From TrEMBL:
Superkingdom, natural source: Bacteria
Organism, as annotated: Neisseria dentiae
Name of the protein: Uncharacterized protein
Length: 146
């Protein structure tokens, strides 16, 4: 009987080590997929009516952006050599977790992300920051959701 318990303990230990190794591998993979630390350029911009970013791109969110409803983001005049555009949301002094939405190039040359949602704030705040990644540049735009 003692021999069986020892085998079970060894098996449990091996399984825990395998689980830890898988978890570390997943964490390293996830970290490698994160964008590089690029300088953020803040922009005074009203994303509800549309505005121009410092690189000339124009950004516009749906006219109504609520924390619990899907909305659209459209970017126009993005430099033609741009390979990737995505947006993520945060708040000042608050981490909102991983939330990154890829914008897709449209037939008319614009970039769009449709039916996306804001991360929910547990403090019921509505003052969001949108980090708009265009190629290697990041533009940060503040806005208020309903």
């Amino acid at each position: 009987m003692l021999n069986l318990n020892r085998k079970q303990a060894i098996l449990a230990g091996v399984l825990l080590l395998v689980f830890a190794a898988v978890k570390v591998a997943a964490l390293l993979w996830w970290q490698s997929r994160q964008p590089e630390n690029t300088p953020v350029r803040e922009s005074a911009c009203n994303v509800h009516t549309g505005c121009k970013l410092p690189n000339g791109a124009e950004v516009k969110f749906s006219s109504r952006v609520a924390a619990n409803e899907p909305f659209d983001i459209i970017l126009r005049n993005v430099p033609p050599q741009t390979a990737e555009v995505f947006v993520s949301f945060s708040m000042r002094d608050m981490d909102m977790g991983f939330n990154r939405y890829k914008l897709l190039r449209q037939a008319d040359g614009s970039w769009a992300a449709l039916q996306i949602r804001l991360p929910v704030c547990v403090q019921n705040r509505h003052d969001y920051l949108a980090d708009i990644h265009i190629g290697g540049e990041v533009f940060q735009v503040g806005f208020t959701a309903e």
